[in-house]
Amino acid sequence: MALQKLITLDQFIIEKEKDFPYSKGELSSLLRNIGVAARVVNWEVRKAGLAGLLGAVGTENIQGEQQQKLDVYANEQFISALSACGDVCVIASEENDECIPVINEQSKNAKYVVCIDPLDGSGNIDVNASIGTIFSIYRRVSLSGPGRLEDCLQKGTEQVAAGYVIYGSSTMLVYTTGKGVNGFTLDPAIGAFCLSHPDMKMPQDGAIYSINEGNYIKFPEGVKKYIKYCQENDPATNRPFSSRYIGSMVADLHRNLLRGGVFMYPETAKTPNGKLRLLYECNPFAFIIEQAGGKASTGKSRIMEIVPTDLHQRTPIIIGSTMMVDKIEEFIREAE
Question: Based on the domain organization, do 177 and 313 belong to the same domain?
Fold first, then answer.
């Protein structure tokens, strides 16, 4: 039997440059640098307990969340890699109060902006559950010099690339540049991400719903009715559905991308604007899921059409298989 050709992330990115005839290779270089930083973070995640990187550092981020040691480490690694690559003019991180202009000789003419959640699901770190990194890339809108806040506050429709890394039983990097979604698994034997999931497609329908049902009493009426719908017995529609919730957006959406399903983090009485961040979590995943054939909504409108007004802006999100998102939107409309 013929051996399957091994395609690394670097090879794949270079081969795909032809899809962008006016590109000079900066985006390819930037994506490769994100891959390098992800390998470094993966190494530390794997040995976090031995390296003393478990637990909180005793500080809070801008969202008022306890920063974990690995949060801080991952943030430092990605900022360092992105600042040094020469392709990024400004970085917006979930862990930093303000955006970070990149000021050095290599980046003075940089074209790209990166919004990043360095370590999603950090509440799972100490219990050894899956966590991840989420990133989003835009072209700058300012003309020159260090990047500015306005470069970061762009609609999701303006993204030129987005992706995530999941640090689980195996480590995967999944990304899109607007021409489909491809997944790469880290091969520890050669220390490289290798193409394992080409042209990923999300099933149009599914039987998994992912939501923190502990907040049920606080959900809008339409969401409550959808959850009850999921729990009803109806063989014709394959119900009841399975409830699967890890508490890491990367882990929950990675599973649902592969198997079909819907992930929900709606507004509640306590968080009327939702909890998840538009720039670092919702926009990049909306781009990825739409490119895979799924749908991303606030419950009423398309996520990627939201015009950001704040670096740490939050939004409700309903995202996943198109038919499931459509059904939830129907319940929400009928409840109004």
Answer: no
